[in-house]
């Protein structure tokens, strides 16, 4: 998967992962892609939930790699 | 779906695991776009004092000071239970940034539109 920006979150999980994810995706232009690497086992469930909550699009998920598109304003 | 989320945090140095996980969950809420409140009550009010969080670092988590800083950076709010604070004779002139001492009415107001609230 190829995204515009890559963030390797390492083993961050739970609130630490999604808050830092929010900060990072807010730096992107609407429609831009973020390629996220998150090895925490909770990421499998949390990242789809986070996308549903925030409205950002989970384009692809193949743990530990996730491709998320920033929502339009 | 509710747009708010509240964490009622009742521990600090007496149970650093609960104190840490409370802020981790609060960061999950603020990171997910919720208007998020941490209500420090009972022993949790000690975290409102500058310097207290600096000594708390649970294995497997970021230091509590970093978690609290991230929470504030994300726009989270900290309310401090006034009677709990007074009972412990803490210093209202040494509050961490963003903390406000309140009575119960402020918590009731925050929760009154159906906000969920979890307690640690």
Description:
The complex is a heterodimer of chains A (73) and B (120). Chain A has a single domain, classed as 2-Layer Sandwich (Translation Initiation Factor IF3), CATH 3.30.110. In chain A, 33% of the residues lie in helices and 27% in strands. Chain A has 2 helices and 4 strands. In chain A, strand 3 (57-62) and strand 4 form a beta hairpin. The longest helix of chain A is centred in the N-terminal third of the chain and has 12 residues, at 14-25. Chain A starts with a strand and ends with a strand. The mean pLDDT of chain A is 93. Chain B has a single domain, classed as DsrEFH-like (Hypothetical Protein Ychn, Chain: A, 3-Layer(aba) Sandwich), CATH 3.40.1260.10. Chain B has helices at 16-31, 64-73, 82-87, 104-111; strands spanning 4-9, 35-40, 77-81, 99-102, 117-119. In chain B, helix 2 links the parallel strand 2 (35-40) and strand 3. The mean pLDDT of chain B is 96. Chain A binds chain B through residues 14-23, 46, 50, 53-54, and chain B through 1, 23-34, 61-62, 67, 70-71, 73-74.
Features:
heterodimer, A: 73 residues, alpha+beta, Translation Initiation Factor IF3, four-stranded mixed sheet, 2 helices, 4 strands, 27% strand, B: 120 residues, alpha/beta, Hypothetical Protein Ychn, Chain: A, 4 helices
């Amino acid at each position: 998967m190829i995204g515009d920006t890559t963030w390797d979150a390492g083993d961050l999980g739970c609130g630490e992962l999604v808050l830092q994810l929010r900060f990072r995706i807010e730096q992107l232009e609407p429609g831009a892609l973020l390629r996220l690497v998150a090895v925490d086992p909770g990421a499998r469930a949390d990242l789809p939930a986070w996308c549903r909550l925030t409205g950002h699009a989970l384009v692809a998920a193949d743990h530990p790699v996730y491709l998320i598109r920033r929502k339009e304003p | 779906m509710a747009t708010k989320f509240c964490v009622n945090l009742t521990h600090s140095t007496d149970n650093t695991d609960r104190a840490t996980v409370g802020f981790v969950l609060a960061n999950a809420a603020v990171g997910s776009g919720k208007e998020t409140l941490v209500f420090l009550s009972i022993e949790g009010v000690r975290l409102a004092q500058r310097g207290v969080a600096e000594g708390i670092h649970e294995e497997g988590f970021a230091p509590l000071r970093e978690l609290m800083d991230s929470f504030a950076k994300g726009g989270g709010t900290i309310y401090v239970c006034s009677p709990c604070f007074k009972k412990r004779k803490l210093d209202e002139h040494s509050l961490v940034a963003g903390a406000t001492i309140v009575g119960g009415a402020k918590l009731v107001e925050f929760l009154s539109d159906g906000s969920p609230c979890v307690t640690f």
